[in-house]
Each structure stands twice: as structure tokens, then as C-alpha cells.
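Please predict the structure of the following assembly.
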Amino acid sequence: MYNYKTYKEEDVEFVSVASEDEVGNGERILLEIDGQAIALFNFAGEFFAIADVCSHDDGPVAEGELDAFEIICPRHGAHFDVRTGKALTLPAVVDIPAYPVRVEDGEVLIGLPVGG
Ligand code: FES
């Protein structure tokens, strides 16, 4: 069901998901887009988006605590890099999807894979 990969700009279509103001510095919002759970993070004006589904056991990874750019899955404690989706610690061994993000005219756009 989930394709654990980092999407490249040429493989996605950008859709507006929020205004810049909706995600304050250091905050995150949880989105559901076309049935996919995605978390959008703001690190000092830089935005990152990852799937909110842990590759270990489908936990709600984006609800975990942040340690710099690492998100810690609340289920079993795997760490992932929010910027890339890379799995950094056990028990996760597979990366989670990370989506390209753009900001245009105050709107945050996430690149979603074309065709779902
Ligand atoms: S579900 Fe995330 S570490 Fe197990």
C-alpha cells in the first residue's frame, strides 16, 4: 500500500495544502490527502513533509517527539529524518516517504506522486 521512497520533483504534482501561517515555526500539522496521512513540518521557515505512517508497524510517526530534525515514533521509538524520511534507528529499517515541498505566494504545496 505504501511506497517507501523519497519522491523526486519530476514524479510528483504539487498541490496546495495549507497557508504558510497555518504552520508556525517549530510546529507540524497532520493532513489527509487522497487518503494518505502526511505530516507537514516548519523548521524556521523551511517546510518538510513525510508520510505519517511508520515503516516499522504503521504507527503514527508524526505524532512523536522531535529531536532536531529527527522524529521519534511514539509506538516503538524508531527515529526518522524529517527532511528525507530516512530510517535512522531500529526497529525501523525502511525509510518512509518524504515529499518535496514548495512555498509559493504564502501557500505551502506538497508534491504528491502522479497517479496516486
Ligand atoms: S510503529 Fe514506529 S517504531 Fe514501531
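The CA atoms of residues 55 and 71 lie 13 Å apart. The radius of gyration is 13 Å.
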